[in-house]
Fold:
Amino acid sequence: MNPKVNLSEFVSGFLAESDDLLSVANTSLLAIETAAKAGKGSPRAVREAYRALHTIKGLSSMVGVEPIVSLSHLMEALLRRADQGAQLSAEAVDVLLQGVRAIELRVRALRDDKPVPEAPAGLLQKLEQMDSGPSASSKEQQAQVDLEPELSAKLAAMDRDQLAQGIAAGKSAMRAEFTPTPAKAAQGVTITSVREQLRSAVEIVKVLPRSLPASDGAPAGLSFVLLVLSEKSIDAVRAVMPQAGLQVSLLAAAEKAVAEPVEFEPDDVQMPLGNGLVRVEVARLDDTMEKLSALIVTRFRLAR
Structure:
C-alpha cells in the first residue's frame, strides 16, 4: 500500500490563491445582486463567480479540505445553472454570499492552524434545495471515465456531469499527470504553474493528488492527475508546457454530431456567395463582445 500523501507544503499556496479567488467571487456576486435589483442580467459576473468557485473547489480538493469542497461544489452547481440561463433570485445570491463567508472562515481556520469546521448543514441544505431544478447530472448523463479506483472514487457527480457536458459539446476528456521533482521546481515548474498554464488552454475539471512509491522519477512519492476537457490534440496539450513532462492520455473522445442532409432549393444553389454576409450565433457574438470589452479595459489600464 502506498503511503498517505503529505500535502502540507501546498497549503500555503492554497491559502494565498484562495484569498484572491474569494475576493473575485464576492465582488462578482455583489455585481450580480446590483444588476438584479436594476432588472438586468450579468452573465459575465456569473461566469467570473463560477470560475472562482470552481478553482477553489479544485484547490481545496487537492489539499484535502473537504468542508470547503462541499460548499464550493454546491455553489458552483448553482452558478452553472445560472450560466445556462436559470435566473438567480435575490435569495439565491444572498445564500451564495453566505457561502463565500463560510469558506472565508474555514480558510482562516486553516491559516491559523486550527481545526477546519464542518460545512454548515443548514447552508448546504439551502444550496441543495436551490439547485433542485432540472440538471444534466442524472446517472445516464454522467461521464464514466477509466480511472484507478482510488481516483475515480474522488469524482463527485458534478465532476462527471461536467465531463459529460464537455464531451457532448465537442471536447475530449483527457488525463494529464504531473510529477513534481526538485529539478522542475528549480525551473519554476510546480503544480501551481502547470495548472495556471493549462488553464489558459484547456478546461480543468479536477486536480487529484496520487501517491507513488518514492523513486528517482518521483522523489516526493507524489504526482497530480489533472482531468481536463480540450478541443486540442494530446500532443497540443502536452506542448502547452513541455518542460513539465506531462503524461497525457485520452479518457473519452468528443462526441461528433451526425450531420443532417441539407436540401437546397434551386434558387439557393444559384445564390451568389460573395455578398459579404456570414451567419453567426448570437451567443458567440455576445461572448466576443465581452472579451473585446475586457481587452479594451486592459489596454486602457496598461496605457495609463
Remarks:
- Confidence is low (pLDDT under 50) at residues 134-140, 258-278.
- The longest strand covers residues 203-211.
